[in-house]
């Protein structure tokens, strides 16, 4: 065997100073370091990689793989090594270290190697085993941890994002995604990866951890890779799959909780208020409306939000909890956004729908109870008393008239209550009960009010307690027939030519008592009469003169003439 064959085929280094064993019949093996874990031992026909130092008995070195800066790779038991090495390497574990003493007849015999190994030389080797594999080996996959839920696993053509630590079989690290500050992102099964990783990633769940041992023929083979992966090296990858998707994926929806009833589902053009937690596929939280204590409010189907959420919110019900899984091509794509959403990330939104409406919505009225024989109903300008409970659509209580001593009072059509409530109180009978759903444009709008969020849909439970017929807009009092022909003389009760406040009040009250006219309904009739007197006492001297007293119809006619 030539000296060149020593360079290519011998393993580890021989250690001097083992003593003289005398004439040897077989290889002497000293297993001076055995690793605690030995998953595999060298057998005949295995491919191996190892380092060695080779010396004579006196310690003089004749060969060393270390000096060449490269490990030795070869096959055990097929005659490519000297017989003593073939025998001495049998049963070794990865990272095991041995001292071997090879007698001449199991080494280079009586011939030796010219200029390198003299005849009948006993050889001493110090060997460390670095790698073992066989051409019949399969990929070795060990699941280290797996999430409880796994709705989907990696398939060919999927795009994966994963972290990894890569080592040689002896534990020498050669690469790590963690040191680069980002995941390794690639397609599976399309030739972008070594074959072993293409196979080793198949069937993984997001969040799963695996150990994948790849034989050289499924890795970088005889050439190795650069200076970090030697030829014929088995590779060990510790893999954490962060997320994956397929370019053909659409939005995936999962209903987490549905309300008992759902009268309406959101469609394109609706304005939705919802809470959400946004996480990556590995559970990392990147955003939450709850942390801001404010719903996210937007139109859907209009391009104001990422396409995946535009699609994912279609068909939601008020009160529904839904999980929306959005692939990156329907989210923030290859570039990601900010420092919390990496490129090509799958996003998971757990949403809770608080309410939604459409800008074209009217007040929704549901009559809960209507008394029989209801002939008189409320009209514009009527004065009504009612009880109410006001809440958001998610059940959050806002206000209630029952918290006060008496019902709420209002004159309809005077802009004293929100438009939607005013509409909902029209055409009601005394004793009638209704549920009103009021969209924000008929409620408190985008800005909301004290205690009412912006753009909130409101739910009112109302009960009409009583109503009084109103008067036309701008009037404080109207006669049921024609007013008296000589109004000033009848109003001047003591006939002194002037009408003070007490005379004016007495006259108006008499007209009401006799059914000849009615005041604008109010909880304070005295204030209404005082306002009437103040309107007529034009110079504010405390009395009304004949020149000052004018009916509103006469005033309106004068204004028309002035305009003409």
TrEMBL record:
It comes from Pelecanoides urinatrix. It comes from the Eukaryota. One of its GO terms (molecular function) is calcium ion binding. This is peptidylprolyl isomerase. Its EC number is 5.2.1.8. The lineage of its organism: Eukaryota, Metazoa, Chordata, Craniata, Vertebrata. Residues 45-133, 157-245, 269-357, 381-468 form the PPIase FKBP-type domain. The keyword Repeat applies. InterPro entries: EF-hand-dom_pair, EF_Hand_1_Ca_BS, EF_hand_dom, FKBP-like_isomerase, PPIase_dom_sf, PPIase_FKBP_dom. The gene is Fkbp10.
